[in-house]
Request: fold
Amino acid sequence: MAEVIPIGSDHAGFQLKERLVAELRTLGYQPLDLGTDSPESTDYPDYAHRVASQVEQHAANRGVLLCGTGLGMSYAANRHPGVRAALAWSPEIAQLARQHNDANILILPARFVSEDQGVEILKTWLGAEFVGGRHSRRVERIELDRE
Ligand code: RB5
Reply:
């Protein structure tokens, strides 16, 4: 069965999101488009929380978010326990986000990458694996222990 990948953006990421939804389908994934549905101005936290909730609740293993800078999406998504949302503006960073940080959400800064760059970043992130080892210890220590 095709892996479901929740994806969301605000208006600034809308155009690139549409392209990435099509690319995900072509690559054999099942994109779950959680909006926005038009280039009308809207608020990024709504979409960040929708996608991050899917990952937090284990309805999906990984997701994709886009906004203008990627920063607002990053702040909101990373408030969800278990979510490691990585802002990547190059394929190299996307690869390291998977290999070293086990990023389970990819965030793209839609106003600072071209559509083709966005597709390359997505493909690289999808194809990279967490390497574990010393990085497992570090990733485990990200979550705050408040006891
Ligand atoms: C929208 O204008 C812009 O602020 C938003 O897409 C994002 O960059 C916020 O972090």
In short: The mean pLDDT is 97. Residues 10, 12, 44, 67-69, 71-72 surround D-ribose (CB under 6 Å). The chain has six helices and five strands. The longest helix spans residues 14-26.
